[in-house]
Structure formats: C-alpha cells, structure tokens
Specification:
It contains 7 helices and 13 strands. It is an alpha/beta fold.
Length: 293
Amino acid sequence: MEEDLTKPFLVGFDVLKIPVIENGVPTWEEKFPLSKIEELKSRVGMNKFSSQMMLTPVDTNKGRFDIEKLNFYDAPLIVEEQNHFLNFSINGNKIVSCSCWWDPSYGSKNGDGSVISVVFIDEIGRYYLHDIKYLYHKDVPKEQIKSATEQCQQVGKFLLNNHIPSIYVESNGIGKFLPEFLRAELQKMSIKVNVIEKISKVSKSLRILDSFDVIISAGYLFVNEKVKQTPFMAEFCDWGVNSKSHDDGLDSVAGALSAPSIKLPTSIFDSFKTYNNFKGKIFKVKSDFDLGF
C-alpha cells in the first residue's frame, strides 16, 4: 500500500502534548518549578524553549530579532590604572573579558563583506557590542576594496583602539592565509596580540540564530550607540534564517558571542604582553589618597 503524501503526517492518530507549563502552572513542578522554567527559557532562547519545552512548532524563518529587546548605551571603555593594576569598565560596570572576531573576505564586490567586531563581557555576564568595523561591504566600489595587507593594518588599529588582547580569525576560505599576514603586520605596528585561527563548522544561519537568540531573550545584549552608524542595524532588522539579506556584520558578532571570551589583563606589566599597546593612551588614574602632610 502506497503512502498518501498529500495527507498530513500521522493524520488520524491521537497526539498527546504535555507542555512544561500550562496556564501559568508548571506541569511537573517537582522537576521544573517556575524558577527553573524561567532560567531554562533565558538559557536556551525562546525558539528552542517553544519547540522543545512547549511543544509548539516554530518557523525559524519568522524568528527575526526584535530591536526593542536591545539595550543601547553611549559610553566609552574606561581603563583605570592604580598601582600598576588595571580595571576596565563600561557605564560603571566592571568588564572582565572580551571576544573579538574577524570574518575576513576579499575579492568579489557582491560577495561576503569583511567585518571585525568586539564584544566585552561584564562580571555578571552581560554582553556589550562595543565596536564593529566593516573593512568593506556590498556598497563599496570594487576599486576601493582594501588589499589583505591594508585590511590587516586596519584590524591592527581596531585592536589597539579597543585594548583587545586576542583576536579570532575565521580561517575558512581566504581566512586560511590571513592569520600569518595579520601577525606580520601587527609585529610591524609593535602590537602584541594573540591571533587565534578558528574554523566554523556550523552553518552561518544556525550560528547567528543560536548566538543571538539566547542573549537577546535574556536582555543581556547591550549595543554601543556608534554601532547604529554601521550596516549592522539594518542587517539585524532584516535577518531571517532563509532570507537572502546581507548578514556579514551579524556573522562577525555571532562569532564573537559564541567564541570563548578572553580574560582582560589585570596588570599594566602583562597587559597584552607589551607596554607598547598602551603608549600614548589616556588613563583615568585613581588618586583619592591622603599623603598625611
């Protein structure tokens, strides 16, 4: 007997669905009390929670991000030095680590863009998308597209301006050759930053969805006001799993969000393994002490 493919799957069968919570009441309170359910929701994101815990089908293509859930701030990264110890903060919140991701590209004007971004993480786990730079994107005339060496020089300035100790370089495709170019340029610029090669094995759409969904659902993604001046915001609003809109900035930030964060230096002597990274920089130095004279 041939299967009738025009009928819905399991048509005629009874289906038992027991969501983890119904009408505000936990179904299995001993295992999943309300506090556990809320923690789970914030940890896995609404898409996975709805499909796996509420047994509600989710169309990920319609799961576009809500800009209203972003937290915007207009504040610099403050570096304070006291007795040779360093403290980093944004908006008065102590910053303990960061993650910088470069998704490189070079060549076709209509191909992927080349984007570097940095995310800082504070002591309670909030993420700050502090800076993003499009080394080139779809609107840049082909004759203005930077060479690999020029891109590495721009990356060096980005690292220096944001006090970044390490950078992940996506080494798929052209990225396979760029880490060595970048190390050479950083050496010329007297910038000692650890260059880490990363191969992405997860599809771009899945990485973007998984990286952003959880953090946005928890209300833990903060975005610097200057990011609004880049193509990132348009990508954020237009994105969908199966959409054909450009997502180069989203992909770079997703890489930064999903990669292991790098602890920031606590001493000016081991800061980025070189004092040169701080030469010419302005520090806010604590001096609220009494010499007793």
